[in-house]
């Protein structure tokens, strides 16, 4: 395996995926690709790396704010990882666009061997 991709929408279910995926990555000594998507106000949109900020027209101010907020939330996840799993290699990506299309593009770009989606963390009835 080359990496584990964990899509984050920063909901409860994505927190479950984050917890499980990072524990698995640490155990298998694999890098983690955290991925978050911000719905675009307009079709298409730029890819935002950690710490980068998009400059665009006034009409996309709302989109810029959403990207900045999502980037901060992903950075908080990384800070948590560094605190509890300092040896884990984590690369974040925040991308603007349709969540499904941007996730599929991310999968094509990085070809992860494992993608961890969320489910109920505490369901023990199975």
Structure description:
This protein is α/β, with parallel strands linked by helices and 126 residues long. The chain has helices at 12-28, 61-84, 99-110; strands spanning 4-8, 32-38, 47-48, 90-96, 114-115. It has three helices and five strands; from the N terminus they run E-H-E-E-H-E-H-E. A five-stranded mixed beta sheet has the order 3-4-2-1-5, sandwiched between helices. Helix 1 (12-28) links the parallel strand 1 and strand 2 (32-38). The longest helix is centred in the middle third of the chain and has 24 residues, at 61-84.
Largest sheet: 5 strands, mixed
What is the rounded distance between the termini? 28 Å
Structural category is alpha/beta
DSSP strand (E) fraction? 15-25%
Number of strands: 5
Count of helical regions? 3
Mean pLDDT: 76
What value does the Rg take, in angstroms? 15 Å
Identify the overall geometry. globular
Helix content: 40-55%
Sketch the topology as an H/E string, one letter per element. EHEEHEHE
Low-confidence parts: 50-55
Q: In terms of topology, how is this protein built?
A:
Layout: E1 4-8, H1 12-28, E2 32-38, E3 47-48, H2 61-84, E4 90-96, H3 99-110, E5 114-115
Parallel strand pairs: 1-2, 1-5, 2-4
Antiparallel strand pairs: 3-4
Concise structural overview:
Helix content is 42%, strand content 18%. It contains three helices and five strands; from the N terminus they run E-H-E-E-H-E-H-E.
């Amino acid at each position: 395996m080359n990496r584990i991709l964990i899509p984050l929408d920063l909901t409860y279910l994505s927190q479950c995926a984050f917890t499980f995926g990072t524990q698995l990555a640490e155990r298998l000594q694999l890098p983690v690709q955290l991925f978050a998507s911000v719905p675009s106000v307009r079709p298409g949109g730029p890819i935002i790396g950690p710490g980068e900020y998009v400059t665009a027209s006034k009409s996309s101010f709302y989109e810029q704010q959403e990207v900045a907020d999502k980037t901060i939330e992903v950075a908080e996840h990384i800070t948590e990882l560094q605190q509890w799993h300092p040896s884990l290699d984590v690369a974040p990506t925040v991308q603007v666009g349709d969540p499904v299309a941007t996730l599929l593009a991310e999968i094509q770009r990085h070809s992860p061997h494992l993608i961890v989606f969320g489910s109920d963390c505490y369901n023990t009835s199975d």
